[in-house]
Predict the structure.
Amino acid sequence: MNDRFMVSKTQAATRQLRLAIKLLFDGADSVPVHTLVGAASVILSDYIKKKAPNKSWDIFAQQANKISEAEYFRVMRKAQNFFKHAESDPDAILDFEVVDTDNLAFWAVLNSAELWPLSKEEEIFRAWYLSSYFPDLDKSCAAFREALSLFGDLRNVSRESRLAIGRKVLKGHLA
């Protein structure tokens, strides 16, 4: 690898998200995984808001939940902001739920899908997430059919097993 190279913000976001998904499925430490997902999420949220606001899943979620943009991002980025700031609360402790990483990654993937074709990592993660949390939704939607064909219903499977299944499916598609 070169010691110096050019990279756009969207390339950075895609690379961060792809690696975060691999690390998530590998069972890596959830704090740095969340940090990577969060960094990608911010870029993708900002980019879609500037380039295609009518396709932003963040805006859709704000409207569907009848909350302000500030409230939405306060909730979505709570852990992410905790992990990167200490100036006003250096001794604070966060009750971190790893499902927050899954949720943030899913919204980042949804925004990414509105901008360009998804990477294999993003496609597999989207299917895994849908199978893990929403396998009984609209079967007429291609993404839900794909999720069920790849994973089935993962709601009653332990997180560790779900991640192992995701890792196996991802490795099979990257081979």
The mean pLDDT is 93. DSSP finds nine helices and no strands in the chain. The first helix runs from residue 9 to 25.
